[in-house]
Amino acid sequence: MTIPEAFEDQEIFVTGASGFVGKALIEKLLRSCPKLGRIYVLMRPKKGHTIEERLQLQWESRLYERLRREQPNARSKLVAIAGDVEQLGLGIGSADLERLRNVNIVYHSAASVRFDDALSTAILLNTRGTHELVKLALEWPKLKAFVHVSTTYSNPGVLEVEERVYPPLADWRTTIKLAETYDAEILDIFNLKYGNFQPNTYTFTKSLAEQVVNEYRDRLPIFIFRPSIVVSTIEEPVPGWADNFNGPTGLLVACGVGILRSQNCDPNIVADFVPADIVARTLITSVYKFMGESKSRAKDSDLYVVNCATANISPITMGEVIDIGKTFIRKNPFEKTLWLPGGGMTTCPVLHFVRFCTMHLLMAIVVDTLLRLYNEKPFLMKLQRRIFAAFSALQVFAMTEWHFQNDNFRALHDVVPANEVSNFGFMQHANINYTEFFQHGIRGAKEFLLKESPESSSAARFRVKIFYVLDFLCRGIVYSFLLRLIFRFLVRLW
Q1: DSSP labels for 208-254?
Q2: One domain for residues 356 and 485
Q3: Which of 111, 126, 140, 248 counts the most CB atoms within 10 A of its CB?
Q4: Domain range enclosing 278
Q5: Residues 383 and 424 in one domain
Q6: How far are the Cα atoms of 68, 241, 420 from residue 236, in angstroms, in the given order?
Q7: Is residue 298 very low, low, confident or very high in pLDDT (cuts 50, 70, 90)?
Q8: Does 247 have pLDDT greater than 80?
Q9: pTM of the entire structure?
Q10: Residue 233 shares a structural domain with residue 340
Q11: Neighbouring-strand partners of residue 42
Q12: pLDDT-based confidence at 191, cuts 50/70/90?
């Protein structure tokens, strides 16, 4: 049976459909499995838009352009379901629950990926939300596969991560009860102690969600799919597509516009990035494999876990990412550049602090002062505070290297029929050209995130040349000032 045949007439329920992974997954399902039944997507009204309006806006986005061109009638297979993962029963009404009784496949990718969420919020979204969906799925008699999308960083204390569930950091039932009972501020006071000193609430609550899934493995056809850091697409439906500034995309954009000059990061760490279209492909092939082996799988067997990680397939260090970005961005600069694209990494926190004060804060003060003089709204100091908070939350990930075992992930390529490798395989991209990949990623950031032309205007290129001169002059003034201070100090010392 081919992969599209396995999905023929199947009814699919997707949470997190408006997220990065969810968007890519839905597009891939509709385009590559054209005979599937329906895709029910859980959505809530947002920013004045109803769920139907939000779904239509997503359908009309650039990501779905190829799908609209090749299969214009695919829109009829998307059905919006009103609900909220943070609510009991996911906030789904009785009429919609009845429509979901025929669901065959569940993709649970909804989660709060903010590392600075309050503990109670993260628990209700990531842990209780998983439990609420699991309880609903128990009532769906035709269910064949339930995919819980977790993260390879759900156990950050383990540096050699296997494809298995690790012992719990806390009891998930007690944790949910605490979030339902106590004030958010009280829980935040005990956050580090209760969370066993996890780096953030995201990894802690995703770890607890895996415990929920593991406990129900004998009652549901369920498994865990753990992507690492999801980045822009490598091939389809368009190279370089992304819908957020997370991961290296945000890093490159911040360096590219000149507001990120220093990072407290180890440049020799091998980073684990996986393109969004590879995640979408393997989410589909993992279900294909799981359903094909369902009859031979023993009920008391360990939970099936897939580490969707690629560092041992196509390794690249953080330093190499920055070097590629700086080289290409200076050739193809952003239109909104505020200073010369650049930035550097250091493992020394003192040096980083000095750089941050002189290159980040000082620059923010100057720019905001000029904006006030021109009666414009200042923004850079506020942005620098957000950058500082974001990098503080990511500090442990910037200084630690994990190794993810991925035998189950690699095996997904082997189950793809030979004539479908180009459509569902991924090992053909093993020897990825990272220079070309990040060039596409930067073009994608310009087009999809900053709403600019993928190619720089002559004005942007000229502005960068001016910044070269200004940067050289500023460095000369600063170095001269420092040398003068040192000289005076030495004279007084003698």
Answers
A1: HHHHHHHHTTTTS-EEEEEE-EEES-SSSSSTT--SS-THHHHHHHH
A2: yes
A3: 126
A4: 3-245+269-316+400-433
A5: no
A6: 14, 8, 15
A7: low
A8: no
A9: 0.92
A10: no
A11: 81
A12: confident
